[in-house]
Amino acid sequence: MKGTILSGVLSSMKSSTSENNPAGVLKPWQVFIRTILPILFLLLFTGASYEFTFQNGWTSWDDDVYVTDNPYIRNFSPENVTAVWTKQFNGSYLPLTMMSYMLDYSIAEFDPFVYHLTNVLFHLANTVLVYLFIGFLTKGNYFAAFTTAMIFGIHPMHVESVAWISARKDVLSGFFFLLSLIAYLKYVQEAKQQGLIFSFLFFVLALFSKVIVFTLPAILLLIDRYHGRAWHKSLFMEKIPFVFAGLVFALIGLLSQHTAEAIRSTSIEQFILMPHYSLYFYLEKFILPINLSSLYPYPKMKDGFFPLIVYGAVPVVYSVGYVAWKKRREKDLMFGLLFFLVLILPVLQHIRFSNIIAADRFTYLSYIGLSFPIGMWLNTLYARSKRQRRRAILAIGVIIITVLYLTSMERVKVWKDSRTLWNDVFKKYPDAFQ
Description:
The protein is mainly alpha-helical. The protein has one domain (2-262, 386-428). The chain is built from 20 helices and 4 strands. A two-stranded antiparallel ribbon has the order 1-3. The chain has a two-stranded antiparallel sheet with strand order 2-4. It is globular, with a radius of gyration of 22 Å. The termini are far apart. The relative contact order is 0.13.
């Protein structure tokens, strides 16, 4: 049934606004088909993939630090509010995220249902925002917007950010990050200064939720490039407040990690190899999200060597880079890849944090970049195809989305409690804690 509905939604958005409506003015039924109907379907399908989240409870992984054993979230007293805005928690400075926990506690104290509901609601909102962002970016390519948002909404690598209560920082920072991009797009397209102001304010709110979004100014430059804005002095001057805020929060984040003794020493060999392996890992998991884990141990040396895959990742990454360079004139592909790289770069283990090589949650925003060119390519392919081939494209799309949907549903169950979570880790990495 869902596959039939999905096929209908995709076929109704078979090309961009400009192709079917050169004047750019949408009729009421077109507004419904190209905006309201896709959003409703995104909400339905994404929400359904997380239905088992509401049966989940707490885990022993950071939920105690952020919520259950945290005295500062139990009321909105001046002392508690001051504490969450001046202290770091578990090596992170995220006062706005802590305020959201305070609000949840005021509603239901330690009932995990409310905390999970908040995470899911933010993820649903973010899925819609991705749809709107790509729609505005492409000036009305609703097919690409829907495809990108659907992948974002149900990709199994995003389950950790939604089903884990302690990952609230991902969905909350993502919410303000996407609002910042949308506000900036409105500024670029309408040349109204208030769009730039709102973009900056949303960026600051995103930083107060999770500092890892500090690279947003580079994304703004990608948007400028995508829309053909001239590279002149004023274009860079308007980014100065963004860059300054990003650098300040990046420094705060680094100092917080240092205070928590989370930064580990790194050899030259690790400094060279691990970023390549980490990047390979994220590219692979985007295409083939199997054997997922809440913890991916840092590779260990045996007889003086790392596992073969660590070395093999280097030529694979450069091969992908070479192909991308050959395709550099394709602006959709380049925008998407650079979007991905800008957001994933800070977590590629140039600076080693803790004993993990990667984490599912680090892809929450960056995978938008990898999904976008796919949406644009499918839109072009569909528009140029005859009816028989269009049906095949839709059928393949439905199958892929269904597989992602079912995989995410199963992944959500892993986060039921501490026992199911750590059993899953031990099953895949028996030596993880040795």
